[in-house]
Amino acid sequence: MEVYRLQNLLSALKGEKEVDIDELTKTYKFQQLLKESKVYELEEKVLSLNNSYIQALDTKQIEKQTAAYYATPEGEECKKRLEQLIRQTEDDWNQIIRKNISHIDEIIRRKLGSQWGVLGYNEGYLNIGVINADESTPERRNPYFGQDICIYYKKNNYPPYMECLRSNCGTTGDFSMEGGQTVGERAMFYVGLGLLYSDAALINDIKSTMANGVVVIDRLREEYKVLRATLADPLKIGKKLKAERHSQSVQAKRKPKHGRGI
Predict the structure, then answer these.
(1) Tens digit of pLDDT for each residue in 48-71?
(2) How far is CA 164 from CA 72, 108, 170, 204, in A?
(3) Lowest CB count within 10 Å: 9, 65, 163, 261, which one?
(4) How many beta carbons lie within 10 A of that of residue 159, not counting itself?
């Protein structure tokens, strides 16, 4: 019963339909569930629902007080400032992505040929290949089938400390060993692949660019996370509520237990 009572409390907070507990207990399904339920499972469920209910109550309180604060001149100014900082962080994120794509595009085209280009890039991930101009658009580049390579950068900032640059290039099946001078030929793709692997300076440039991208994006991600959290709770009400609950819990544990009388 306690499980359904807590579920109804949560539903009421969220504006969802509540369960008619009196009617539910009369059903055959409920009676079967009751027989099959284990005490420890029910206790865990009650504890989980109780925690969820407390969190939902806190969220409602935070939203209510935050809305009231943002309705004030001071709060309105604070909200505008935070939203501007969030937009700036998003712009900085997009800028580092575009900058690194542009740089890698330039160096691989110069070394491997103008038919090569960046197909995809994000933190620690790079996909380059021979671009199929006929099947590509300004918004999306598509490679010739099987003529692309994925490159991964990873660095551990904790033991065991390590930094690595790895690649994955799947086989494209058999192909002619003759020719290799026309864009789209598999032989020409592998010529470019050989040039890539044999150029230590090019590989180091790609690695440095990806490493810098990881550092910058990690920093921006943390800034974005903090700004989002601050926008949702500028008065740090959640932190205060958490501290209050912790204090109440500690006091409850310290409360002296009465001994058994004689």
Answers:
(1) 777 777 788 888 889 999 999 999
(2) 52, 20, 20, 11
(3) 261
(4) 6
* CA separation for the pair 56, 248 (Å, rounded): 19
What confidence tens digit (pLDDT) does each residue in 73-94 have?
Answer: 999 999 999 999 999 999 999 9
Q: Which amino acid is at 128?
A: I
Name the residue among 201, 6, 215, 220 with its Cα closest to residue 108.
201
113: left (phi over 0), alpha (psi -120 to 50) or beta: left
196 contacts 202 by C-beta, under 8 angstroms: yes
Q: What pTM was computed for the model? A: 0.74
The two structure tokens encoding residue 251 = 């006091």
44 token code pair:
């865990």
**For residues 152 and 122, what is the distance between their CA atoms, to the nearest angstrom?**
10
Under DSSP, is residue 127 helix (H, G, I), strand (E, B) or coil? strand
How far apart (Å, rounded) are the C-alpha atoms in residues 104 and 121?
10
Among 143, 152, 155, 89, which residue's Cα sits nearest to residue 122?
152
Burial-class residue 192 by CB neighbours within 10 Å (0-12, 13-18, 19+). Answer: buried
